[in-house]
Amino acid sequence: MGAKAPDAYAELLDHVQQLSYVADAGGLLRWDQQVMMPDGGTPARSKQQSALSTLHHDLLTDDDLADSLAELEAVDLEPEQQAVVREVSREHERARNVPRDLVERISETTSEALPVWEQARADDDFESFAPVLEELVELRREYAEAIDPDRDPYEVLFEEFEPYLGLDTAERILERLRDELVPLIDDVADSGVTQPLPFEGTFDVDDQEALVREALDELGFDWNRGRLDTSAHPFTSGTQFDARITTRFDEEKPLDSLSSTIHEFGHATYSLGLPDDHYGTPLGESRDLTVHESQSRLWENHIGRSQAFWEYFMPTVEDHLGVGASAEDAYRSVNRVYDDNLIRVEADELTYHMHIVLRFEIERALIGGDLDVSEVPHVWNDKMEEYLGVRPDTDAEGCLQDIHWTNGTFGYFPTYSLGSVLAAQLYDAADAEIGPFDDTVRAGEFDALHEWLTENVHQHGKRYPTEDLIEEATGETYTADYFLEYVTEKYGSLYDL
Amino acid sequence: MGAKAPDAYAELLDHVQQLSYVADAGGLLRWDQQVMMPDGGTPARSKQQSALSTLHHDLLTDDDLADSLAELEAVDLEPEQQAVVREVSREHERARNVPRDLVERISETTSEALPVWEQARADDDFESFAPVLEELVELRREYAEAIDPDRDPYEVLFEEFEPYLGLDTAERILERLRDELVPLIDDVADSGVTQPLPFEGTFDVDDQEALVREALDELGFDWNRGRLDTSAHPFTSGTQFDARITTRFDEEKPLDSLSSTIHEFGHATYSLGLPDDHYGTPLGESRDLTVHESQSRLWENHIGRSQAFWEYFMPTVEDHLGVGASAEDAYRSVNRVYDDNLIRVEADELTYHMHIVLRFEIERALIGGDLDVSEVPHVWNDKMEEYLGVRPDTDAEGCLQDIHWTNGTFGYFPTYSLGSVLAAQLYDAADAEIGPFDDTVRAGEFDALHEWLTENVHQHGKRYPTEDLIEEATGETYTADYFLEYVTEKYGSLYDL
Fold it and tell me: Keyword annotations for this protein (chains A, B) (predicted)?
């Protein structure tokens, strides 16, 4: 049997690579749709994407793959080969249990849901969206039951986005964030400290674009393997050979494009740090959403919102935007905690996580059947008041603000906070090992940090489950200690606590 | 059996649509590679494209499709359904006879050939390219024999690009062009007439871009279903929902970008005129290369190089480029016949076809085994001297100038001339039916011509074989009469013959 292993493994790799290449082609079609495609192209693009999805599903669930996997499970393999088999088996099993017609119904319903949600949000009319949301909740419950009828359906959905850390860990982390951040947010509100606002006014979009391009240059973006474009919602797409960032520009919010670009830059560095020679296999793919979000948050927050960065970068901002603020004022401004913060994507590093806790609690109750769709608006508003001390006047600024549920996505939100928590842990480990970074950031030197992240995170692809990857990188199990220490110190200092 | 027809036909359509959607996804990947992709993306893109090609080949040759086709051939179908079956059968049969490993060998050899050809052309070193060319000729001969061992292999290859008109028609047309154009070109050379050159100098690329965008506006390009970008070699790509043009700018040749844009606009109007509701089936696809090239040549030459167009458009050119020539001088300039014309893509409407005749004769002899690869350079140069009265000093300006053979493409060149000939026939029919166009072109009105072309050509997709489509549109069989009449009159007048 040992003699057959290489053949079966080679067949598996070949099959898996075809799968990846088709998935990446689909990724390009989505990028193009959001960045380049003329509006009239939508009907054809939907069909092209659906054809690729169907082919992908067929390749992922086919009998040849099942046979190769069965054969390989009985064979001695190298650790890297074991990792590949583990990852492919997991995806194969999940997909194989889901009836093709359910996949198609979910795809159709989410397509139909998008314009309904857009209209409901524009009209501040939750009731017109409620039946669609109900259907999506029902379909996802069915989907989770198809994958594993014996487990909490929300847990099954959550594992689509974070397959290894476990829902119990997510729950523990989010509860701890809630318990420790709510009083800190209260203290900030009560501090009486206000931050300066040197970036008021309107700023030319071309100047903003020149600024973010220079920021990418300085941070070390590899333009030979990437692009920057604009889209309605910023995102990152691509592979280790071609990682593309988008941003958006608002004349009145010049720093939003900068921080969103640095956030997406973090995602792109992860893609670009994956090993070239494992392209198309799990060893050349990123380790899901918690780790991905840790990379974007690390660059956005631990670098892009640090005092050292603003000491280094403020002259460049001044060159492009003509704002003559001190580095200290700029730093204080970009870290301002808003007391009327209703919108998740505009939130600071503290209140952000309350937006996530609230969504996590609501979507879990929805999928679990403990909350009726009709109750979502008032539960949302009550929790906003409890966690953030502010109550939305409209559902448009409340439970209709995010696109995730409309996309049929439940269980995704927690990875935003899990990623932020991991960012702090990784940053601390890197800082302890090769830092302190303050002086290097102040000098605009980022190579050592890039190298540490590539060596300790990116180059492993999916070789390790999430918790093992974290332990390999930091020497410790996954913990919120570093994040809480970081925000306590940072905001304590900013708000004289 | 009649009762089963609709089911089998629906299955066929579904299968064929999947095929088309995958092909169109591949088309987007190629567009992106030439227009948007950072250089570093090449290795991943090659693999994605190869995966889609393999899936396409598998779908096109699979047994389900063979069964549906066999079932439908025994059934009474509507004419439109018959057309779909005819087109799909043809492609299925061709693909099914070609061994997959031969497809892969051709794909690999052409990938490897590209850099060899680029280097050989740069070094003017035909000998280093000769072994690759020999291999490509051999592979294509094998390919043609796999499809049909009983027919002239060049004929089989030609039918990949023009499946219906027949190689005998191509031969007859090209011989007639050679016989009638060679003396006309001699007369032009002997006329002693020289044309004015008002577009000498350097012209800003941004000004040129503004000019070609305005030209597209004026001609009626649908920006909601299309784009204009730049690439190394101009091309058109896409579907009836999303047709994308590229052009390129040379500071010293401001009219090249204009005429290449109008040429590609012609291709795009064909795509955009295909019926939306047949997207993904042969009824929603263009009728191969002769007809496609007729659309590009019609707009490029019969409109874009006409006196009426320059009377209308010269003020716009003046606005953007600052050239103050008369419409008459501009018209004469863009129709100048160069006496030292070595390069096909720079040729005028007369000498262009001698470039094609020469390539047709050489590639046919190569595939037929009547010409050795080593003889290509001197045969090329001899024919240049015979047909055009000029002998290239280098192979870089001779037999190494085109990319087609390097791409493993033999039998494509004739469609350029066949398309020009058809353009004249279609333009004459439209002009007779709804013209004369001179006054409408002079007034910048193109709607009637668009409508005529859409109604008589575009909307039919692949419903009719080429010769039937031509007869439906013009009321006559395919003929070179109109083209020869057109150039004889036009160049007779320009050169006082």
Answer: Carboxypeptidase, Hydrolase, Metal-binding, Metalloprotease, Protease, Zinc
